[in-house]
Task: inverse folding
């Protein structure tokens, strides 16, 4: 049977205590939120922290404020976010992304912060110890070679968070606290294009909360490609957030942020594609141009589910589908997309 | 008030729902320690040396290798070619080489990593084509584990004279059982007291046979006890013998300390059996009017490194390859080949889903070539009562295939939906289609299997006035105990509350055969019915039972009998139905006592943006003899269809050097409730006189038909023929691209 390695468990009561415990533990420490990803990974020895700092009892991580904008504590469970009708109505794209994460039991445990900091994934990494040992380990853990790209000096494990691309698209800001103090940065700046050091979070920092932009006039959506209507991590996702110069779907675009998830080690912001839309209504031509520009950024390798090249092939059509939805065409008809946790429920403008 | 035909709730359900049910991981004995397995690193090689690494207190750990086996180093089954522990060579990845046991599971895990196998790799055979090419010979003289030939008429002449000849090649992939509970065993073994094992299993007497050979023990000192078993689907038919042997070897060497081995999900997926992958080639000749005049079928299955059950899987697959059709000229060549992959084993359907997939997919291609609707081609060729199947068996069942087809077309709204989809498919990015399949499934063991088994059951009346049904047939979630109690109660003419069905224990129950082959209800159930009538007769003859009698009268009679005359017991032993004869040498005759028959319809949508296919609605019409428990029967159909949807669209075993690469539930994709459509179930009941209260086999039937129906629906939706499962988006995209490239 797979067993957790021996470890010490620390249960701080405050964010300050948690940050101090993390600083004390050094490289041997890790934060434990819902544990839905970390604990199975530990059983397979992908991650082997010797000290776990549990966040469950920490006060101040479960803030939930909704006014013109929203502030969400990193310790909120995904289910708590889904049950917040006002939050979901204000940010329908957020609702869809959260609802698409795994299954209800895992959403009951998994947290916003945990999903934002989700370990990157790879077919050569998310395996049992014996399996990895048999092929002689990989760069991300215990080895010296990247089995996806053997000539590569870097790790290509894939950012598989559903929250990350959405928060980057929204232009959300995250707060990090350490023993030295706190800092705030754009969600986009939290991520680094590297399969191993995929977060800019310092090892002694605790992600405490996320601030979303004002929801009035915001249109946002999230589409996710995977084989089934539940359980699966994204193998490609599209998060899109727009503001138009007017109330109708045919008004010109004022601001657009398109983000691709699960095509690389970080959420990929398609800035050029977004800029292509600004000042134009969401015509089929504009959508096609933006989709093509964004899809060019998708250069996935053969290290997740689906055949090589599949994620790249699907990127353009998925981006176009997201933009049509934000134009007001209704939810996409596609089997997978329509099943992404929101059967039949229109996403609409927000 | 008869119980047969009514939805009696499952007897074991309350224990399972409340958590009281005791599965192997809940089972513990005093002083019990744990066992783990060290496995081969690659698909094929020689073991030079086993080294125990540093930093482990090896003197505390029980270490077992092939040298510690007291008897023969085989897992006895049919050919006895599979070792219990690899000694000099290993023939597949994840083959067991060394066993370790200790009370501290954390230490055990560290120790497992410190067992180093120095090996010399040998070139592996990994595909059906490699095996047939036989450049490397890994099994017998030509890598062919078994071959069969079914021949009637003159196929070559008929093909020459046919108005139309259509060829096709069809492939199916491996499939993992994914029973909810992984495999596991607890064993106590000493030279003095023999071997006892408790565990998750389908076939207690198979395990007993394997242990007897391994330890050179007589049956009375080799005891196998089933614990609550969380699903099997064939995956606990032969592999439990291996795990039981491992646990028992560790206990034997550790001086009789109880040893438990439970696999985690990854180990279970890597090391245990799968459905046989297959490749089938069809050449079909027909007359202008659609009459089939020649079926030439070449059916090959990949058996993996050892033969296990491959020859019987092959025989069922070969016999089912020509389906429920009449054709004068048929040639079916069936071959099972060996490859350096973990041995393939039993899986619901047992070869029939593979060969029926090829046939039913091919007939849609044939129908198009002949310019006939798929249902019409089938209707014109259905076998009828009194006609002969390809193996020469005359159909005696009261089946009416045209009526089953008619009903399936009617309940699915076939014509109306087809017309609507033709309109709707003109626009948008969604294409819908309907597909059907017509098929049969033989009840019980193939050929003379049931006669060789000569299954026995016993019924026992107790001093408390209760009746115990003693069989080795296991409850594995399918409802064995419930239907047995229904059958016994009705045959005795009493209420179900006085019937007990104890858990199989080879020390206490007769050998009623393995729990496989859709045989439990119909064949073992019939023996229970017979034994029950005989028990009742004993009470009547002794004048202890008035006529008519109540359940109370019956209980009093039982109690009186035991008090006055001692043990009250009746047994029944299998006799083949009259007129049934099978010639194993010529592979001809009555292959099964009866067949179940079915017509299935699938509605599928394909998304032209993501190329994903999804089953939207599913209709099943089947003739299965008498339905003993309608709720359990419908559950079997729905579950089988769901499992077959997985095989058809989602479940892709990714092989990497003969090892399953996606050995976790996050990337071996089985359908969830989000992916399973409404499944409509209709039963036609034509009672089979030699099955319990008229029942025929049921459990495997629903695995046979869905895959071809679903791929036929994809063909209907897209106009593109896809000839392999699983039809993942990549496969559908490739097929569409090839089609476009040709245009």
Result:
């Amino acid at each position: 049977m797979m067993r957790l390695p021996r470890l010490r468990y620390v249960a701080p009561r405050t964010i300050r205590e948690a940050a101090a415990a993390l600083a004390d533990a050094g490289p041997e420490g890790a934060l434990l939120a819902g544990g839905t990803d970390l604990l199975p990974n530990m059983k397979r020895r992908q991650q082997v922290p010797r000290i776990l700092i549990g966040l469950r009892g920490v006060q101040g991580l479960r803030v939930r404020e909704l006014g013109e904008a929203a502030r969400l504590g990193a310790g909120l469970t995904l289910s708590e976010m889904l049950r917040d009708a006002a939050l979901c109505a204000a940010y329908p794209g957020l609702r869809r992304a959260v609802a698409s994460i795994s299954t209800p039991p895992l959403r009951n445990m998994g947290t916003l912060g945990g999903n934002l900091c989700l370990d990157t994934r790879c077919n050569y990494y998310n395996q049992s110890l014996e399996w990895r040992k048999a092929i002689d380990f990989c760069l991300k853990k215990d080895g010296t070679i990247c089995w996806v790209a053997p000539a590569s000096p870097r790790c290509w494990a894939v950012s598989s968070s559903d929250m990350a691309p959405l928060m980057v698209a929204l232009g959300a800001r995250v707060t990090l606290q350490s023993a030295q103090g706190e800092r705030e940065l754009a969600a986009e700046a939290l991520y680094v294009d590297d399969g191993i050091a995929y977060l800019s979070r310092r090892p002694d920092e605790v992600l405490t909360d996320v601030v979303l932009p004002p929801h009035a006039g915001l249109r946002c959506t999230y589409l996710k490609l995977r084989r089934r209507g539940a359980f699966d991590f994204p193998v490609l996702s599209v998060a899109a957030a727009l503001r138009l110069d007017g109330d109708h779907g045919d008004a010109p675009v004022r601001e657009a942020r398109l983000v691709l998830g699960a095509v690389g080690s970080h959420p990929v912001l398609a800035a050029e594609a977004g800029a292509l839309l600004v000042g134009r209504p969401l015509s089929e031509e504009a959508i096609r141009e933006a989709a093509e520009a964004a899809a060019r950024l998708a250069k996935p390798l053969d290290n997740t589910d689906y055949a090589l090249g599949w994620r790249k092939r699907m990127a353009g059509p998925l981006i176009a589908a997201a933009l049509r939805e934000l134009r007001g065409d209704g939810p996409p008809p596609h089997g997978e997309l329509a099943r992404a946790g929101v059967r039949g429920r229109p996403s609409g403008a927000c | 008030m008869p119980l047969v035909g009514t939805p009696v709730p499952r007897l074991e359900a309350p224990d399972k729902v409340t958590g009281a049910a005791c599965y192997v991981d809940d089972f513990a004995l005093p002083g019990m320690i744990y066992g783990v397995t060290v496995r081969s690193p690659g698909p094929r090689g020689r073991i030079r040396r086993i080294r125990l690494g540093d930093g482990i207190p090896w003197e505390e750990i029980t270490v077992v290798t092939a040298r510690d086996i007291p008897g023969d180093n085989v897992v006895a089954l049919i050919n006895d070619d599979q070792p219990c522990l690899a000694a000099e060579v290993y023939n597949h990845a994840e083959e067991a080489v060394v066993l370790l046991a200790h009370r501290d599971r954390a230490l055990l895990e560290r120790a497992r990593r410190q067992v180093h196998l120095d090996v010399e790799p040998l070139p592996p055979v990994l595909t059906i084509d490699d095996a047939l090419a036989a450049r490397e010979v890994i099994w017998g003289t030509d890598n062919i584990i078994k071959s069969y030939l079914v021949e009637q008429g003159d196929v070559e002449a008929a093909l020459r004279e046919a108005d139309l000849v259509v060829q096709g090649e069809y492939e199916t992939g491996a499939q993992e059982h994914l029973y909810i509970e992984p495999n596991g065993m607890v064993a106590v073994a000493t030279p003095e007291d023999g071997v006892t094992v408790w565990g998750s299993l389908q076939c207690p007497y198979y395990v007993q046979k394997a242990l007897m050979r391994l330890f050179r023990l007589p049956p009375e000192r080799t005891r196998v006890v089933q614990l609550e078993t969380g699903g099997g689907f064939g995956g606990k038919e032969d592999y439990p013998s291996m795990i039981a042997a491992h646990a028992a070897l560790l206990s034997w060497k550790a001086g009789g300390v109880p040893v438990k081995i439970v696999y985690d999900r990854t180990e279970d997926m890597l090391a245990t059996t799968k459905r046989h992958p297959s490749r089938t080639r069809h050449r079909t000749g027909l007359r202008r009017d659609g009459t089939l005049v020649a079926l030439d079928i070449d059916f090959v299955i990949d058996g993996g490194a050892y033969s296990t059950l491959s020859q019987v899987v092959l025989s069922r697959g070969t016999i089912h390859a020509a389906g429920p059709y009449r054709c004068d000229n048929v040639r079916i060549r069936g071959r099972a080949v060996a490859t350096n992959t973990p041995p393939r084993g039993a899986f619901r359907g047992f070869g029939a889903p593979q060969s029926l997939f090829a046939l039913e997919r091919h007939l849609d291609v044939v129908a198009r070539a002949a310019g006939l609707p798929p249902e019409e081609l089938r209707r014109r060729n259905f076998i009828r009562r009194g006609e002969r199947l390809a193996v020469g068996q005359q159909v005696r069942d009261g089946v009416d295939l045209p009526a089953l087809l008619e009903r399936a077309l009617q309940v699915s709204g076939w014509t109306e939906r087809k017309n609507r989809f033709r309109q709707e498919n003109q626009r948008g990015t969604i294409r819908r289609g309907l597909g059907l399949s017509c098929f049969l499934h033989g009840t019980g063991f193939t050929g003379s299997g049931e006669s060789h088994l000569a299954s026995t059951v016993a019924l026992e009346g107790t001093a408390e006035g209760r009746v115990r049904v003693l069989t080795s047939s296991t409850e594995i979630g399918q409802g064995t105990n419930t239907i047995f109690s229904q059958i016994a109660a009705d045959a005795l003419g009493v209420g179900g509350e006085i019937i007990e069905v104890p858990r199989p224990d080879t020390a206490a129950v007769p050998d009623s055969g393995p729990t496989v082959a859709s045989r439990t209800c119909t064949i073992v159930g019939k023996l229970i019915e017979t034994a029950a009538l005989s028990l009742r007769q004993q009470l009547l003859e002794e004048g202890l039972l008035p006529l008519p009698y109540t359940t109370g009268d019956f209980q009093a009679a039982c109690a009186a009998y035991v008090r006055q005359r001692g043990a009250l017991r009746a047994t029944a032993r299998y006799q083949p139905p009259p007129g049934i004869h099978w010639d194993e040498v010529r592979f001809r005759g009555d292959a099964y006592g009866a067949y179940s028959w079915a017509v299935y319809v699938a509605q599928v949508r394909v998304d032209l943006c993501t190329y994903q296919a999804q089953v939207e609605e599913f209709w099943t019409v089947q003739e299965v003899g008498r339905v003993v428990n309608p709720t359990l029967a419908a559950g079997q159909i729905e579950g089988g269809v769901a499992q077959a949807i997985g095989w058809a669209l989602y479940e892709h075993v990714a092989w990497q050097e003969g090892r399953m690469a996606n050995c976790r539930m996050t990337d071996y994709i089985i359908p969830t409730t989000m992916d399973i459509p409404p499944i409509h179930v209709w039963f036609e009941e034509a009672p089979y006189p030699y099955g319990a209260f008229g029942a025929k086999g049921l459990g495997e039937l629903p695995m046979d038909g869905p895959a071809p129906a679903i791929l036929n629906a994809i063909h209907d939706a897209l106009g593109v023929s896809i000839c392999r499962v699983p039809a993942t988006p990549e496969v559908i995209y490739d097929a569409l691209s090839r089609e476009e490239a040709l245009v």
Q: What stands out?
A: The domain at 1-59 of chain A is CATH 3.30.43.10 (Uridine Diphospho-n-acetylenolpyruvylglucosamine Reductase; domain 2). Residues 335-350 of chain A have pLDDT under 50 and may be disordered. The longest strand of chain A covers residues 236-244.
